Amino acid sequence: MEITGFKQSNKANFQPGRKSPVQYIVVHYTANRGDTAKNNIDYFARTETRTSAHYFVDEKEVWQSVRDEDTAYHCGAKTYKHPLCRNGSSIGVEMCIWDKAGKVRQGTVTKAIQVVRELMEQYNVPPECVLRHWDVTGKNCPLPMVENPSLWEDFKAKLKGDEEEMLDYPDWAKKTYQWYADMPEWARESVRKAVKRGLISTNADNSVSVLGVSLQTLVYLDRAGLLDK
Ligand SMILES: [Zn+2]
After folding, report:
1. Which residues lie at CB < 5 A from ion ligand 1?
2. Residue 108: CA atoms inside 13 Å, Cβ hemisphere, count?
3. Which domains does the chain have, with CATH numbers?
C-alpha cells in the first residue's frame, strides 16, 4: 500500500498483535472540520486516548498510525449490531471528511475508496465485509454516510472494480449500434466486412446490433486480415 508515512500511535491506544486475521474493514470519520491525516496521527502519537485507527486519510495523504498486524481500538462497544466484526478482526480507516464549513470533501472519499480497495485486495475482504462504524455498533459514524445513506451506497459501488472500469469507457463504447451512420467512422468498414462474412447478423430492415465495446475488436480482426477472406 502506498502510504505517505507511518507514525506509531501512543502505546495506550492499541494492542500489539491481533486475535484473528483481517476479515473486515471499518470506515470512520474523524468528526473534525478541516483536519488532515497528519494532524490526526500526530495527535494519537502524543495523546493517550485509548482509541485509535490503522489509517487516516485526507484528499492528499494516507498516514498509518497502527500496523495492520496490531489491534486498533476503533469499533469496540458494550453492545454490537454486527455479530462478528470486532477490533480483533478488522482494520479501521478514518476519513478526514469535513471541510471547515462541515461539507463533505469528495477528495477524501475518493482517496478512502482507493485505500479500502487496496486493503480488500491485500486481505481478500469481500465488499459485504466493508462496513461503516454504524453497521458494527450503531454509532453515528461516519455521520455524513449515516445521515445520507446514498453516499455510502456510492462508496460501496465504487469498491467493485468492474463498475468503475465501465464508467471509464469512452462514450462510443457504451452504445449499441444499429446503423453504420451512427457508428464511429473508424469502425464502419470493419463492421461491414464482419457482416459480409456472417460474423454479425442483419435484421430484415438491414440494421444490425453491435455493442460498442466490440468495435475495437472488430477493427483489430480486420487489421489482422481476418475479415478479408
Ligand atoms: Zn467511528
Report:
1. 28, 133, 141
2. 27
3. 5-167 (3.40.80.10), 171-223 (no CATH)
